[in-house]
Design goal:
By secondary structure, the protein is α/β, with parallel strands linked by helices. It has a five-stranded parallel β-sheet with strand order 2-1-3-4-5, with helices on both faces. Bound molecules: 1,3,4-trihydroxy-5-OXO-cyclohexanecarboxylic acid. 1,3,4-trihydroxy-5-OXO-cyclohexanecarboxylic acid binds next to loops. The site of 1,3,4-trihydroxy-5-OXO-cyclohexanecarboxylic acid (DQA) has 10 residues, from loops.
Length: 141
């Protein structure tokens, strides 16, 4: 089974970016624990701060044998019709994740252009939001 994790804007700064909101662990360190916990899953990881590069990666993983895409688009979640269209246009299911509980934060974070095209949304569990998405995707159909 293949699972693609895609992180968007500013998520390369995890570990040093607003640690009171996003924690103090780097995504690379968390990704290693995830891979160790699910050795049977072939993970890929892609991060970009650029909207078009995120769309290109969605297109690459969107029509191949990837079981599911776990996407944290960062602030593009709240702004990007182009990423929403990419999710709507691909066949691989996408799970939207957020580290923080966006509904407990500023009002502009309450709107997601992406959610309606996603299989589901997980937010507010810290980096464990990604693990919960993996658990869903790895359960037998
Ligand atoms: C985030 C929430 C977004 O509102 C914010 O812009 C991010 C991170 C999260 O994971 O909590 O960059 O997606």
């Amino acid at each position: 089974m293949k699972i693609a994790i895609i992180n968007g804007a500013n998520l390369n700064l995890l570990g040093k970016r607003e640690p009171h909101i996003y924690g103090s662990q780097t995504f690379e360190a968390y990704f290693q624990t995830l891979q160790a916990e699910f050795p049977a899953i072939q993970f890929s990881y892609f991060q970009s701060n650029t909207e078009g590069e995120l769309i290109d990666e969605l297109h690459r993983k969107g029509f191949d044998d990837t079981t599911g895409i776990i996407l944290n688009a960062g602030a593009y979640t709240h702004t990007s019709i182009a990423i929403a269209d990419a999710i709507a246009g691909i066949t691989t299911p996408v799970i939207e994740v957020h580290i923080s509980n966006v509904y407990a934060r500023e009002e502009f974070r309450h709107k997601s252009y992406l959610s309606r095209h996603c299989k589901g949304v997980i937010c507010g569990f810290g980096l464990e939001s990604y693990r919960l998405a993996v658990l869903y995707l790895s359960k037998p159909a």
